[in-house]
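From the shared-data thread, chain only:
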Amino acid sequence: MRIRRYTDNDVSEMNEIWNEVVVEGVAFPQEETLDEVSGREFFSGQSYCGVAETDDGRLVGLYILHPNNVGRCGHICNASYAVSSSCRGQHIGELLVKDCLSKAAELGFRVLQFNAVVESNVHARHLYERLGFIQLGTIPGGFRMKDGHYENICPYYHEL
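Structure, as tokens:
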């Protein structure tokens, strides 16, 4: 398994992985899936995209990295991670987050902030806390789940 920068040839597989999380409706704020055109535009618009590639060349995960804000807050970045459901539980997310932390620092960001980690996403929260992220608090009812009910979100940050 290796984490590397994405290429245009990866976009179809990246769309599949990304869209799987969007359709699940329990983690990403997006409600619309990506197609070939919107996926190319979306991923090319990031500061960096990393992909997790197996030894046989199959993509099993990805992350996007971009500024969280502009101007005086432009040194804070944000990221999102997606792992194929067929490969979850294999520590791919950990590899993606670690690579993202390194890449964010390399790009000159000073803080990585997550705005909307769903409180019930205990596996992600445990990973973030184990890697040194600090929870900033809880926003009651900040995330509308696919079934329409609202769950709390937990913002996190990590100094780089």
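DSSP finds four helices and eight strands in the chain.
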